[in-house]
Structure formats: structure tokens, C-alpha cells
Amino acid sequence: MKAIGIVTDSHSGISQEEAARLGIMVLPMPFYFDEECYYEDVTLSREEFFEKMKQGRKVSTSQPAPADVMRLWDKALLAFQQILYMPISSGLSGSYSAAYAMAQEEEYQGRVHVIDHGRVSTPLHRYVLDALALVEEGYSACEIKEILEKYRENMVIYIGVETLEYLKHGGRITPATALLGTMLHIKPVLKLGVGTLDTFQKCRGFARARKTMLEAMQHDIDTIFREPYEKGELYLLAASSASEEVTAEWVAEIKEAFPDMDVLCDKLSLGVSCHVGYGGLGVGCSCRPPRGR
Fold it and tell me: Which residues of 172-203 are buried (b: 16+ CB within 10 A; e: fewer)?
């Protein structure tokens, strides 16, 4: 039996296939079309998901059932002495609070460590990779939890939204604002921080939104993240709910803007895509967590 395992959820953008390759476990998130429940990457493909969205089907997200979470923990604890559970940010969902409460039960106490990392999508994917590196370096589960929570603020991501429809459905903008924005061809750029998703800038046209995201990223690297960038400890991130072709073009734009940095790009998880819609693009960064020794 290995000492420490990693369990996350599909809000991380990590597929079941990649999870198997990494040696981790991923809890598939539930979401609903009308009143029918589906599980990401299990009972509905990505193509089917977006096709239903285009058909105008009402989509919503949900927290995982406690029984599903505990079932996956039990499976993980057959292979690992302790596990680090990294669900979606506590600022975006109640999943963390529910998991933390369950981890206090006698059968999981001291064996399941729930991490309040403040992340979702590619930043969470990157933090899972950081956690795996810390495991390999010999850190204990408690030490890894402390490191990841202490440095969780060291990230940002900007997301350009192609349609306002799903921000309206989620209550982030009013129907009147959505209608006016659509008429004026407004494409908002959102800023994802630790547990928050706020409007950063409103742009006329998606080309302008893409340029705005790259400019904002450059500004952050030159200022907030200058030191880790100069040390080679800054990771560049990208995410997309657009087509393969548009995603490839976006990654090429990012690489052209930042030629000395590699890019970790994920398909935006279906749970996040419920709120962003089809055609969304994102760019961001995350710092390598400083070691505690």
C-alpha cells in the first residue's frame, strides 16, 4: 500500500483517462439537463453536452452526493494509507464544506485530508500536479495540505465568454444586460481568483476580448508574478470550451505572446462550461508552491 494518494473532482479538467495515467482518482461531477442527471466523462460525452446546450436545454450544476464521495474515498483508501482530497474551490461550491465535515468522521479522521486550495479548472489541474510532485519529494500529507493552502493565492486566470446566455442563467447578469450586451456585441472578460469569479472588462467583439486577456496576463507577469517568473517557477495555463480548431489557435496566440513559457491547456470542465457556455477561452498562471523545508 502506498503512503499518499490524490483524489480530485472533474472540475479540475482532468479526464478519467489522464487520472489513470497520473495514478490519481477523479470524482465525476453531476449536472442536469432539464431534470435528468448526467455525470461528466461517464454518462455523457463532451460533444453530446454541447449539442444539448445548443438545443437550448436548461442546464444546471449540483454538488456530488455524499455517498458518491465516500465511495471513492473508500476505494482510494484500499490503495493508499492517506489521501489528499482536492475538490472545487470552497468559494465556488459547497462541496469543500461537505467533504470537510465528512472527513471528521471516525473512519476518515487522519486518513482523508481535504484541501481548501481555492481553485477550479486548469489552476486546480496544475495544483494536483504540484501535489504529486510534493508526494514524490517525500512530504507528508499534512505538510502538503499546509503548503497548498498557504500559497493558494498565487494564481489567476482570465476567461473570455463568447455568449452571455449562461451568465444570465446563472444570475451573474440580468436578462436586460444580456440582451443589451448581445445587441452591442459585448464579450465580457472574467477574472478568476481564489474562490471568486468577477467581471474584469467588457469588450466589443471576441477578438478584442482575446487581446485584453493576453494584455492582462502580461501585466500580471510583469508585476505580481515577476519574481516567480524570473526564477522559472511560473506556470502558464489555458482552458477552452471552444472547438479543437479555435482552441489550437488560442494556444498558438498564447505561445506567440509568451514564447519562453510552456502552456498547460485543458478542455474546460463541463461543470464550469455550464456557466461559461460554448466558445469560452481562458489564460492564466500559477506559481510553483515554495517548499516548507
Answer: bbeeebbeebeeeebbbbbbbbbbebeebbeb
pLDDT single digits (tens) 80-130: 999 999 998 877 778 889 999 999 999 999 999 999 998 889 999 999 999
Burial (0-12, 13-18, 19+ Cβ within 10 Å), 280: buried
What the block records as the C-alpha cell of 185 is 456585441
Task: Note the pLDDT tens digit of each residue in 195-241.
Answer: 666 778 888 888 999 999 999 999 999 999 999 999 999 999 999 99
Angle between helices 122-136 and 141-150 (to 10 degrees): 140
Query: Is there a contact between 73 and 104 (Cβ–Cβ < 8 Å)?
Result: no
Residue type, position 75, single letter: K
To 10 degrees, what angle do helices 206-222 and 244-257 make? 40
**77 three-state secondary structure:** coil
CA dihedral of residues 84, 88, 94, 96 (deg, nearest 10): 10
Listed as own residue / partner, the contacts of 47-55 with beta carbons closer than 8 Å and 24 or more positions apart are 49/270, 49/273, 50/241, 50/273, 50/278, 53/273, 53/277, 53/278, 54/278
**How far, in Å, CA of 97 to CA of 23, rounded?**
25
Measure the CA–CA gap between 88 and 215, rounded to whole angstroms.
Answer: 27
What backbone phi and psi angles, to 5 degrees, belong to 193? -105, -155
